[in-house]
Amino acid sequence: MNDMAVALQPAAYKSDYKPIWCPGCGDYSVLSAFTKAFSMVGRKPEEIVVVSGIGCSSRLPAYLSSYGFHGVHGRALAAATGLKLARPDLTVVASGGDGDGYSIGGNHFLHACRRNVDLTYVVMDNHVYGMTKGQPSPTTEPDWQSKLSPTGTGLRVFHPLVVALAAGANFVARAFSGDPNGVADILAEAIRHPGFSFVEILSPCVTFRPEQRNWKQAVHPAPVGATDDPAKAARRILSDDGFNVGILYRGNRPVYRPPVGKAKKQPADLEKEFEV
Asked: Nearest Cα to 91, choosing from 44, 145, 56, 29?
């Protein structure tokens, strides 16, 4: 990362596109937190890339003035990893939702944690597929009933923080979209921390899960501070109620940085090989 920080206001990281999320969606606050975090980190918009997949939250890159890549469903981390390895000078952030990241993108999530490339993954978790009309997601409670799951799924929920820690993420945190300043602080620390940083943001879907408005009363600061001991972090995460917010783990695993040499071939050379 470039050590020469710049002083830019959060507004400098906003694009001219108006967000089209539902009124009251938590992703509006997350967008605000992104711009504040980038301002705190002090990198220019052209030195930042936000990569996303598919879903409501994956629209985020369009609303930022940084470089952005809107990928295919579940593949944000694959694209973000390749980009960071090819351009280690850039600050790379991947963003998405619980469906995109933990269902079709679950395999990429596991191996991104394992590789420990220096990038940040932000998942806006609302325990539902919001863009496709309210299907249960991997983090949906087993007894949650809807028109699409009238008796609930009966399935155990996916626990992303536990999985991230077990798979090797170097930084694990949870935040709540109702506290954009708190989210911004955590995002800035995640970006600065070397290695793969994972931040889960509880972001209510007021359209398909209006009861999530109550999350504002349910969230609370984690009772203990961050640790660098994965065993202690695992015990804390496994025993929490899903609403502890804060930085839960700061690891010190070596960052995966393969050597980047000069390209042996140019695109034109490769094209010649396929000429008929």
From this structure: 44
Residue 213: name the closest of 14, 22, 9, 15 by CA: 22
Average pLDDT over residues 111-138: 92
Among 64-78, 144-158, 198-212, where is mean pLDDT lowest? 144-158
CB 123 within 8 A of CB 96: yes
Q: Measuring CA to CA, which residue among 144, 147, 161, 130 is closest to residue 247?
A: 161
Strand pairing class (67-70; 48-52): parallel
- Residue that is written with structure tokens 């995460």 in the block: 237
66, 91 Cβ separation under 8 angstroms: no
Sign of the C-alpha dihedral, residues 43, 44, 46, 49? positive
State pLDDT tens for residues 201-223: 999 999 999 999 999 999 999 88
Return the DSSP state at 132.
Answer: T
**Quick one: CATH architecture of 17-273?**
3-Layer(aba) Sandwich (3.40)
Place of tokens 């506290």: 179
Tell me what the mean pLDDT of segment 112-117 comes to: 97
DSSP string, 191-256: HHSSS-EEEEEE---TTT-GGGGGHHHH-EE-SS--BS-HHHHHHHHHHS-S-EEEEEEE--PPP-
Helix (H, G, I), strand (E, B) or coil at 135: strand
Give the start-to-end residue ranges of the domains of the chain.
Answer: 17-273
